[in-house]
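Extended Data, panel c. Modelled sequence:
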Amino acid sequence: MEKTTNNAGQLIGALVLGAAVGGALGILFAPAKGSETRKKISAQSDELTSAMKEKFNDFLDELKAEANTATDRATAMMHDGKAKVGL
């Protein structure tokens, strides 16, 4: 399960990075006034920041879920062990 999650995360990260680089290059090579180009670059950076924050929050949610699962398993193992010992 970790491998699938890791591969999916890497794919999403690569897509976000590719979109950001492509967008920035398109803006830089497009004929426009400097002020318009700066506004476009600022908008692109805001979008990239938002996408990265969302990706990071998704990662944290997955991490919390995995931690909760591990805690639940450890608790169940502890109770099973106590039951076998007779505590």
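The mean pLDDT is 82. This feature is highlighted in the accompanying rendering.
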